[in-house]
Backbone:
DNA sequence: AAATTACGTCAACAGTACTGACATAATCCC
DNA sequence: GGGATTATGTCAGTACTGTTGACGTAATTT
């Protein structure tokens, strides 16, 4: 293991360059930024025996109260089996409650409890703090410029999901199918 | 399961707001953006039986040829046991070679092979394309503004690692394929 | 010579994802 | 009415990536 095996290719000693127009700088920054961004809530989650999956579920249930299981799966892009464990734990710990769908009784509308709302806020707080600091530190005058860039990074087909949220409109349940 | 259990908290029907100054919009966008950003190479990796961990190792070995195992662990912030499996596979498949450290023969300097270099480029290509498109779509005139924001999102202690890379990208804006 | 360092490896386990299969209740449609 | 479909739940097995802890070896340091 110390040396190369007989048939191994020769080592390339030069660093990869941007010769091909590959934006390694931003690729790398995105990795570091996201890693640290998610590390903030990870600390808190550990105290609850939760993981990132719990955070994501909690986030979207708080953002779109009353969404159904199917809608949640569509937003998270995971399978129902994968969601099941995590959602069950959040329900068992009284962070989320399910209500039978009013129109379609097969559906389960998901709502946060006060406890779930509080945790979602606690998890988002350090992330928001980091974002605010980053905007200041980077001298970003227009917050929306970052927003626009991030949104443009999302697959076009999925951008619709993002805009579902009633930005400032609190108290009003919105377009559920 | 249909209804709330007896002691469950009451459902909150209002969407979480930005009232507390929490920047949910960017938090959410960051999640979607990173998810789609990583989904690009995931397709290619699947063909090799590799995962994201392989990609990250490959990326940094190409970016910093000759880095030691310890340095790689420090950049990735994972344990050596976690790195071992992934690194071994990349070495066995002749994407990476190890050379004994010249000064300290205990060390293993990691280098990409031509094969490893090619794969790293192939993985980065769609990501770079996405970034370039996002910069254009969002009307970002100054590429560096995004760079600065992302860098500011990284923990201060870790920013040093980012700037290790010799060749800088400053002048290059696009010209991608 | 002893201690430390760099790396490798074995074992066990956790969290999150996947596929496939099957069950139940509710709704839809002929 | 009755069959098909839909929404959800659940069981079983598997993969990938991460963890901790322990131990071994070679090389370097003290």
Residues:
């Amino acid at each position: 293991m110390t040396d190369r095996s007989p048939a191994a290719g020769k080592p390339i000693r030069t660093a990869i360059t941007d010769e091909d127009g590959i934006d390694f700088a931003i690729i790398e920054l995105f990795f570091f930024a996201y890693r640290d961004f998610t590390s903030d809530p990870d600390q808190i989650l550990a105290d609850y025996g939760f993981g990132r999956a719990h955070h994501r579920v909690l986030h979207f249930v708080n953002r779109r109260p009353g969404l159904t299981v199917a809608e949640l799966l569509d937003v998270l892009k995971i399978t129902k089996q994968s969601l099941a464990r995590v959602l069950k734990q959040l329900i068992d710990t009284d962070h989320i409650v399910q209500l039978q769908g009013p129109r379609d009784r097969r559906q389960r509308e998901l709502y946060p409890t006060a406890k779930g709302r509080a945790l979602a806020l606690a998890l988002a707080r350090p992330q928001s703090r980091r974002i605010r600091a980053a905007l200041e530190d980077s001298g970003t005058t227009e917050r929306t410029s970052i927003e626009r860039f991030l949104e443009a990074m999302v697959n076009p087909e999925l951008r619709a999901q993002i805009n579902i949220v009633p930005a400032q409109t609190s108290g009003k349940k919105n377009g559920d199918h």
